[in-house]
Each structure stands twice: as C-alpha cells, then as structure tokens.
Amino acid sequence: MNDINTVTLADTARGLRAAAGLLRAGQTVAFPTETVYGLGADACSDRAVAEIYRAKGRPAFNPLIIHVADAAAAEGLALFNAPARALAARFWPGPLTLVLPRRPDTRLSELATAGLQTVALRVPAHDLARRLLVAFNGPLAAPSANPSGGVSPTARSHVLDGLGGRIAAVFDGGDCRVGLESTIIGFLDEKPVLLRPGGLAVEDAAAALGRERIDQPLRPAGAPDAPGQLASHYAPRAPLRLNATGPRADEVWLGFGPLATMRPGLNLSSTGDVVEAAANLFAHLRALDVLAAEIDARVIAVAPVPHHGLGLAINDRLMRAAAPRAAASAM
Ligand code: TXA
Ligand code: MG
Fold first, then answer.
1. Which of 17, 62, 81, 287 is surrounded by the fewest CB atoms within 10 Å?
2. Is 306 exposed, middle or buried (0-12, 13-18, 19+ CB in 10 A)?
3. At what angle do helices 274-295 and 46-56 cross, to 10 degrees?
4. Over the stretch 13-58, which tens digit does the pLDDT of each residue have?
5. pTM for this one?
6. Which ligand neighbours the alpha carbon of 180 most closely?
7. Could you give the CA distance from residue 217 to residue 225 in angstroms, rounded to a whole number?
8. 3-class SS of residue 78
C-alpha cells in the first residue's frame, strides 16, 4: 500500500513540532539515531505501534525497543537492578539497549512489547533523536526503519527507498554515526547476558561491571537466535481453538469482522480491519483470559483472520499461542 505522501522534515523547531504532532496523532515518523534510523511511533498506543508493523511488513510481532529521553524516564517503565543501573549510568545516552522487567503499572502498549513481561529500553545519543523525545514528551517504540528482512538504514535516502509512501514522515538528519544497531543486554537475575551484539563493544560493557565477559544466553539446540523469536511470546492460560465459527458452551469468543460479535467475547475489529485487529490482539487475549477464568470457560475460540497484511502476523501469533505449550516454548 504505497499510497501516502512521506514528507521530509527539517531539523528545526518547526520540523520537531510537526513530528510531535504526527506522533501524537498515531502516525509513524522515521528519525536518525546514532545507530540506525528508527521508525518511531507512540509506545503507549497499540494502534500507533500496529502502524509500525504494517509499514515494515513484519511477519511476526517482535518486541520493539522503547526509546526514552533519559534514564529517569526509563526507570519509570522498568525495574532496574544494580548492574543495569551501572550500565545506564556509564553508557546512556548511547548504543546500548537494556532488557528489564516491565513495571506492571505502565501505559506502554502490549503490542510494543509483544505481550512480554520485559521491556527493551534505550536512550539514544543522537541530538535530534533526543530533542524529538523531549518534544513528544513520551516513550517512542522504534525498530530500524526498513522493510522487514531488509538492511537497516543509516541515511534518509535508505529510509525512503524502503518505506517511502508507507510512513508519514522522515527527518533529514544526515548519516548515522554508529551504523549498527544497539547492543542488547538482558539479565538472568542480576547476571548480564548478551542478547544481541551491536554498536557498543561488549567488552566495554563487561569492564564497566568489573566482569571478564558477558556471555550470550544458552539456547536449546536448533532454537532461533533472534531474541524476539524465543519462548517469549504471550500465550494466554486458556488454550485456543482457531478458525472457529462461534463459541461452544464452555468457551469465550474472539471474533473478527462485522458478523463476528458474539457473547461471551470480544471482537478484534468489527469492521474487519487487520491493522485495528493487530492493535487489539494482545490486550483482547489478556482480557479473554480473565473473562474465561471468571465464568469458568475452558477455551478461547477464535474466528478466522485473513492472511493478508497484518493478518499474517496475527495468524503467526495465534498459531504460536495455540501450539501445544511444550512445542511453543521451544519456538
Ligand atoms: O540501534 C537500535 O537498537 C535500533 C535503533 C532504531 O534504536 N533499533 C532496533 O530495533 O534495532 P529492532 O526492533 O530492529 O530490534 C529490536 C530487537 C529485536 O531483536 C527484539 O527481538 C529485541 O530487540 N527485543 C526487544 N524487546 C525485547 C525483550 N523484551 N526481550 C528480548 N529481546 C527483545
Ligand atoms: Mg531491525
């Protein structure tokens, strides 16, 4: 769907105001960071985050990195341990992303964190990115601003090559200093683990913690190595029954489309809009889990969702959630 006019914004007070306005309206704006250009959207809006997935054509809902203006803002979204605080103090702003337990009381979109209990946070060092975060005055979800599977963009022209016509705006911010995505570090209890090597040398991170090294996490043989693909997706407690035509006596219902509003249940999109459905997916599954427990239903029956656009990603998540739990935990 290459049908919108992607505007180029200048690095001026006016450009920043325009970008903040677009972001508040739920649109996507590409901006430079010191690593790569990010495709930003309001991290507290499921709908805005769904726009990121649509623009990128992502086949699955990988959790996104949440960008904030400073460490204080990050502490408002996640529970920091001592080594995380030390790394943040030493390397933020900069090409380091920390994966930490998400605070239970945040307004962050469930879709942005793919339904996980953790959140990936980063304070970018690029001056324009930081001024944009201040102008927007809230967290921005931002994956690299390229179509899914493509090479990360380090210049405005790369962004336009891949996403021109699919996003609202891109900043004219020059080339990215680091040109490689951030290093991602998570924690097992308080032990740091390297989830993705990147723009910050892992040796430097280890040294800052007085450690000899930071290892990659051990994975079961054959498991995919992208952290977003791990056993990390949100699966509701109740099992799912897919491609159902309606709820049976002991089921709650997750519908899709104009004829699919049935009780007890919820509709992903009563207009049959897959972007709206994607924005609702994680929140609805969570709510139906609660409802199922309340009324003693055993199963969440799910209407068929078309496979086009974000429907592909919705089906991917539904299939993971519906897979036998032992198999799902190895995905
Ligand atoms: O340099 C960067 O990090 C760039 C710029 C724009 O900031 N952003 C970036 O985002 O590379 P993205 O979405 O392309 O990569 C996000 C990575 C994915 O591999 C994802 O699986 C991982 O971060 N990730 C995000 N949240 C996670 C979480 N809660 N647990 C584990 N991994 C997570
Ligand atoms: Mg990427």
1. 17
2. middle
3. 130
4. 999 999 999 999 999 999 999 999 999 999 999 999 999 999 998 7
5. 0.82
6. 1
7. 10
8. strand
